[in-house]
């Protein structure tokens, strides 16, 4: 592998859980997570060589993942061959008791709109209000206002 | 317990499960980095070239009938215009470095265009033109089919109606998720306006 390919591989292996969890929150089933995840990898690779450290690389990974999850056309058939991911758990399996907490989280987040979903996901990843605002496209003040509204919405559920 | 703090715990549980999984293999990485992506781009380019080729081919073999080549030409031109406009509106660079709000705004613009004249040409006008031409041909050669040619015409009309109705449902009906996205975009705009008013 070339040097930049090795660096890319190291980056995505480090961020795999983050990318997968974001794709999970925007998907309806396991196949859709796979599609979103692999589409995200393609976008990350395409942008990796041009990434110029204008932001932290982790912030950039969040940005690309979120944008991919929003923009990928679910009706579009899979382009070319898809290689299955190496994951032997099904986060959508409601019969698995180990997944109870994960399922609760998923159901809560699914009830939120797309921006609120993105904001809460990034907040749960411990990003600052400035970083969240930069990724979503709103000011840090608006992020704090949205979080208050999200909290109120979750209380009503 | 505060709902958000509870969700932090749930997220930690999710991450713990995912960290134990390999998820990405060498094969996945090679597939992403490999030539297959370039092959897809080549395929897309060839599709754009194939459309005018098809039009010219149909005209050459149309045997004097101008109707079908014109219909194919309209189909091909609208197909190319539609795809070029989509590609120009939301570029790969937007996914790499744009923020979520801008990406969503552009997607909304794309969806709005999908309801424009080009889609009506695709979904309704062209099927009518194609089937009209086919019906004319069937009527002209009807005797060759014997007494069944009326059945064939009826079958053709039913196919056209099903095609037109399915396009109306799939392409012209705005999916409900987009209503939600638009509502959130509007909410964010109102929030910006509130902040601007507070500053005055």
Mean pLDDT of chain B: 70
CATH first level of the domain at 1-82 in chain A: which class?
A: Mainly Alpha
Strand content of chain B: under 5%
In CATH terms, the superfamily of the domain at 1-82 in chain A is RNA polymerase sigma factor, region 2, helix turn helix motif
Helix coverage percent of chain A: 55-70%
* Distance between the amino and carboxyl termini of chain B: 39 Å
Description:
The complex is a heterodimer of chains A (157) and B (200). By secondary structure, chain A is mostly helical. Chain A has helices at residues 3-25, 30-48, 57-71, 100-110, 114-124, 129-136, 140-156. The relative contact order of chain A is 0.11. The model of chain A has no long low-confidence stretch (mean pLDDT 86). Chain B starts with a helix and ends with a helix. The relative contact order of chain B is 0.06. Chain B is elongated, with a radius of gyration of 26 Å. Chain B is an all-alpha fold and 200 residues long. In chain B, helix 4 packs antiparallel against helix 6. The interface between A and B is large, with 71 and 52 residues.
Key features?
heterodimer; A: 157 residues; mainly alpha; Rna Polymerase Sigma Factor, Chain: A; 66% helix; 0% strand; globular; B: 200 residues; elongated
Task: Give a summary of the structure in a few sentences.
The complex is a heterodimer of chains A (157) and B (200). Helices cover 66% and strands 0% of the residues of chain A. Chain A is mostly helical and 157 residues long.
List the helices and strands and how they pair.
The complex is a heterodimer of chains A (157) and B (200).
Chain A: H1 3-25, H2 30-48, H3 57-71, H4 100-110, H5 114-124, H6 129-136, H7 140-156
Helix pairs in contact in A: 1-2, 1-3, 2-3, 5-6, 6-7
Chain B: H1 3-19, H2 26-33, H3 36-61, H4 67-89, H5 92-97, H6 100-114, H7 117-140, H8 149-172, H9 176-199
Helix pairs in contact in B: 3-4, 4-6, 4-7, 6-9, 7-8
